[in-house]
Amino acid sequence: MADLLFLGLSFLAISGAIAMIVYKNPMYCALGVLISMLSVAGIFALLSATFLFMVQIIVYAGAIMTLILFILMFLNIREEDLPKEPNKFKLIALGAVIMVPLNVLIIKAVSKLPSKD
């Protein structure tokens, strides 16, 4: 059950991060950040890291996101005021390709760790 919950929370964290990068509307991007932060807090709760869970909820998802949303509402940014990004998805794909070797290295290092059994 914990494995299934971990997979769900990690899927939500990655989905929120992708939403933050892909959407053009700043409010939707802030919502993606909030989803990612709450999902990471859930992962901390699964790891029984109570302090990190509470810090993630109170400081990051609470205070920092309130500040970001306040600034976005105060600035009243309209979509026509945002810069054009013609190569946005090409750059996202390039960044994903560049990160693949690092991810493979991390997965190899974690797989060589001694098991807890």
Description:
- The protein is mostly helical and 117 residues long.
- 79% of the residues lie in helices and 0% in strands.
- The protein is built from four helices and no strands.
- It has helices at 2-22, 26-46, 50-75, 88-111.
- Helix 1 runs antiparallel to helix 2 (26-46) and helix 2 (26-46) packs antiparallel against helix 3.
- The protein starts with a helix and ends in a 6-residue tail after the last helix.
- The model has no long low-confidence stretch (mean pLDDT 91).
Which helices and strands, and how do they pair?
Elements (H helix, E strand, L loop, with lengths): L1 H21 L3 H21 L3 H26 L12 H24 L6
Helix pairs in contact: 1-2, 2-3
Distance between the termini: 19 Å
Number of strands: 0
Order of helices and strands: HHHH
Measured on Cα atoms, how large is the radius of gyration? Answer: 17 Å
Strand content: under 5%
Give a quick account of the main beta sheet: strands, pairing sense, barrel closure: none
The helix/strand class is mainly alpha
Which ranges are low-confidence, i.e. pLDDT below 50, for 5 or more consecutive residues?
none
Q: Figure out the total of helices.
A: 4
Mean pLDDT across all residues, rounded?
Answer: 91
- Cα shape: flat
Q: Percentage of helical residues?
A: over 70%
Q: What brief labels describe this structure?
A:
117 residues, mainly alpha, 4 helices
Task: Provide a short characterization of the protein structure.
With 117 residues, the protein is an all-alpha fold. Helix content is 79%, strand content 0%. The protein has helices at residues 2-22, 26-46, 50-75, 88-111.
